[in-house]
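Memo to structure team: turn this sequence into structure tokens by end of day. - J.P.
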Amino acid sequence: MPIKKLMRRLAADNNDFVDCRIENYIKELINCFYEFQNLFQYQILLFFLKMFFSCMCYMHFLIVSLKDHSLRLIDTYIMIFLFIIDGLLISLACVRCEAFYREAKTTRRLSISVLSIYTDGPIREKARTILKTLDEKPPVFSVYQIWNLKADTMVHVTGILTTIFFNVLQFNYL
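Reply from structure team:
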């Protein structure tokens, strides 16, 4: 992945931001983001549900097999491997959505700072249009308005799975 400073310097060297239509580019970028969300929110929902229920099954299987002393080493390795793969894929999706959201917030802050510096002119109008676009449609990946896919989503899912783990553990050993 290229460094942000390098990308910003290349963009500044190759583009004249006074004459180009950057506000149209950002509007199209946000529209493409929402088209992407509409296309893939079902797959993300299915993947989260698959990961959630498979982790619940892994935990239940692990607890029951520990209770019955029937746990084999290969079973443990397979469960851990599958859980790590699911966790990494979900973490990657969450991090990518969070990175896009943070870049949009940075662009929003940049537009606000440009508005505070320039009182009139084409740059102010571009900054106002960009700010209006980002305020109307903030680029947050929402899965059917059930939850937003951000970096803290994995923390919440881990908290729910931990609660379920201790409930299953409590019911099997009490």
